[in-house]
Amino acid sequence: MTVYFTSDTHFGHGGARGRFRRPFESTAEMDAAMEANWNAAVGPGDEVWHLGDFALHMKPDAMAALLGRLNGTKHLIAGNNDGPETLALPGWASVGHYAEQTLDGIDLVMCHYAFRTWNGMHRKALNLHGHSHGQLKPQPRQIDVGVDVWNFRPVTLAELTVPRPRRKAVPVSGSP
């Protein structure tokens, strides 16, 4: 079993395409691509922690059908756009607003929102979050697991913890 993390799929939310500059021609194309990417990465015996904002503007039966088509045992950490219908979907193995776990010897603190401080941060615990759609300046041991950062698919802890190249500062015109 592999454990995956994701957030901010915003299934059914056409506004997400423009607001977060998603490269899809339609909401249906966006939803289909994210469903296909999810199922290409996640197997039926895997586990997925979705850190909020699963779907918007979808009826409960459509959300339930979508959740049922997504591979893996799915846990929801509620986001600001997850209403009572989303929280009540029968496809969630668990629903909460915050979770802590240890995976591969690494302590994880999970919430939809990024924290300034979190339990175990001085003992190298990681804060996994969503909500910011890749727009926050990265902080040490704090990782945005949102689909906008990770090519519209769930990712493993190993992928999240691989050092990523830093962008080089571009000199301002007229400076040395």
From TrEMBL:
InterPro entries reported in the protein's UniProt record: Calcineurin-like_PHP_lpxH, Metallo-depent_PP-like
SUPFAM superfamilies associated with the record: Metallo-dependent phosphatases
Top-level taxon of origin: Bacteria
Domain Calcineurin-like phosphoesterase: 1-134
Family note: Belongs to the metallophosphoesterase superfamily. YfcE family.
Protein name: Metallophosphoesterase
